[in-house]
Write a structure and sequence with these properties.
alpha/beta, globular
């Protein structure tokens, strides 16, 4: 499968978030060519500020593999991760991050700051940005237009 195919799966998760009144961000974790975890934002439903799509997907992937070390896995997420999620990506030792749209207000993987490529970390993450960027931005725009 291609990066776009995995991102489409993350977009399906974002759509679920949208339908539940959550900010529509979705994520999937891919390991050895197969999705081992998927999630979407659940902050509102859980009343949990840490219930971001990335955090939930990482937790589910670790549970699936029986290890917190996800060094052979990739995270696909529809929006550039925030600092908290970027930290979780490093802690999980994910090998790759692929994201759709940049977050010009709170992104921590290049737009506002770059947490992942700091020289102090002993773990490096391969980053691919802009996969299905338009579609990833569109669902966010639709959501916030509906709120207004």
């Amino acid at each position: 499968m291609l990066h776009q195919d995995w991102m489409r799966m993350a977009l399906l998760q974002a759509q679920l978030a949208f339908e539940q009144g959550e900010v529509p961000i979705g994520a999937v974790v891919v390991h050895n060519g197969k999705v081992i975890a998927e999630a979407h934002n659940e902050k509102e439903r859980r009343n949990d500020p840490t219930a971001h799509a990335e955090i939930l997907a990482i937790q589910r992937a670790a549970e699936t593999l029986g290890s917190w070390r996800l060094s052979e896995a990739a995270l696909y997420v529809t929006l550039e991760p925030c600092p908290m999620c970027a930290g979780a990506i490093i802690q999980a030792r994910l090998s790759r991050l692929v994201y759709g749209a940049m977050d010009l207000k709170g992104g921590a993987v290049g737009s506002v700051m770059n947490v992942l490529n700091h020289n102090l970390w002993n773990h490096k993450v391969d980053i691919l940005a802009g996969v299905l960027e338009e579609e990833c931005m569109d669902i966010l725009k639709q959501f916030f237009r509906r709120l207004r």
